[in-house]
Amino acid sequence: MATTVNMPQLGETVTEGTILSWPKKVGDTIREDEVLVEVSTDKVDTEIPSPVEGTILAILVSEGETVKVGTPLVVVGEAGEQVPVASAPAPEPASEEASEPEP
């Protein structure tokens, strides 16, 4: 069963973090406690270990993006497993300019 890993609380006053890098990519295998993602906060840069072992099925947050504690970051599961719909990245909203016909 796929596991969604959320942005952890990295300190009492830390409310958000910026994704610095993803050492692994979708399809890579990761072991429990292996570095999953590198995050920067207003206090420190840190490596977040994977809480589970498996295959990276989806990366939900891009490098350079700042997210709040509790935000889903990545989905880890068995190779070939489907990513749960609730965890899948939302499609980019269509541009308003493209939806309005020209006069």
Helix-strand blueprint:
Elements: E1 3-6, E2 16-21, E3 29-30, E4 35-40, E5 45-49, E6 54-59, E7 66-68, E8 72-77, H1 96-99
Antiparallel strand pairs: 1-8, 2-4, 2-7, 3-6, 4-5, 6-8
State the assembly state of the protein chains.
Answer: single chain
Mean pLDDT score, rounded?
Answer: 85
What is the molecular shape?
Answer: elongated
Helix content: under 10%
CATH topology: OB fold (Dihydrolipoamide Acetyltransferase, E2P)
Specify Rg, calculated over alpha carbons.
16 Å
What is the second-level CATH architecture? Answer: Beta Barrel
Query: Count of helical segments?
Result: 1
In CATH terms, the superfamily is: RNA polymerase II/Efflux pump adaptor protein, barrel-sandwich hybrid domain
Strand element count: 8
Q: Report strand %.
A: 35-45%
CATH class bucket: Mainly Beta
What structural class do you assign from the helix and strand content? mainly beta
Secondary-structure element sequence? EEEEEEEEH
The largest beta-sheet arranges its strands as: 1-8-6-3
Which regions are unreliable across 5 or more consecutive residues at pLDDT < 50?
90-97
